[in-house]
Write a structure and sequence with these properties.
Blueprint (H helix, E strand, L loop, with lengths): L3 E6 L8 H10 L28 E9 L2 E9 L8 H5 L8 E3 L6 E3 L9 H5 L6 E3 L4 E3 L5 H4 L6 H5 L5 E5 H17 L5 E3 L10 E5 L19 H8 L9 H21 L1
Parallel strand pairs: 1-10
Antiparallel strand pairs: 1-8, 2-3, 4-5, 6-7, 9-10
Helix pairs in contact: 7-8
Amino acid sequence: MAEKAILLDMEKCIACRACQVACKQWNELPGEKTTFFAAAGGYQNPIGLSPSTYNLIKFYEVEEQNKLRWLFRSHRCMQCVDPACVKACPVTPVKAMTRDENTGAIHVNRELCIGCGACREYCPFTIPVIDTQAEKSTKCTFCFDRLGNGLTPACAKVCPTNCLVFGDRDQILEMAHKAVERLKMKGRHPVIYGEKELSTGTKKIFVLPEALDYYPDLPKNPKVSEDLGLFNELLKPFGTLTLTAALVGMVLAKIREVKEKNEVKS
């Protein structure tokens, strides 16, 4: 199967949240109680990703020349081509965070997950959320179960404006570059995000209609922490049968402590 991707042409997004609803329906995720929060972009709902929300439309309030306008962005797992979360997932006895060989989708096997949080710690976008009640990691699965049966991801299936388009990654990138030219002709300042980030890119290809400064929570230069290799080395002596969330948490805490000391010295 050719490597797949989703184009997210955010100029076409009308914030209808059909993708959010479809994601919840397909993954059988419950609704969650939310409240208005007094901040720029406070009309988005809910405030962030959670064990019950894998996909979220974010609102960005922009004021220019005394005029108010909104920018929107879909917020979910970027489905990295070379996923740090999979590398960080400890073997217990096999990895809970895996990359599906057929579809390339990255998802969590909840039966194997111990909820240690290593995937979130080393995700350059800080996407995975730990369900503290179930003690499991949660995130967008790229609808790997749908892809395996020849179906389109639920979010792209329902998008009414073709903001979300699913297809082969090379074709998606071609569409992204054409969208950039379209936006430039309109006087916009578009950015393609996900093509070359992390050197190998992601399977979520954004066409943002404005510069990255308009999306302050999107990393301009996402990087995987250099201590990922050290983390895995520190876990090796314990063996797979003794790994627990508490033990992994202790190793992560020790690495953070060493990093903080080094930062103070430098």
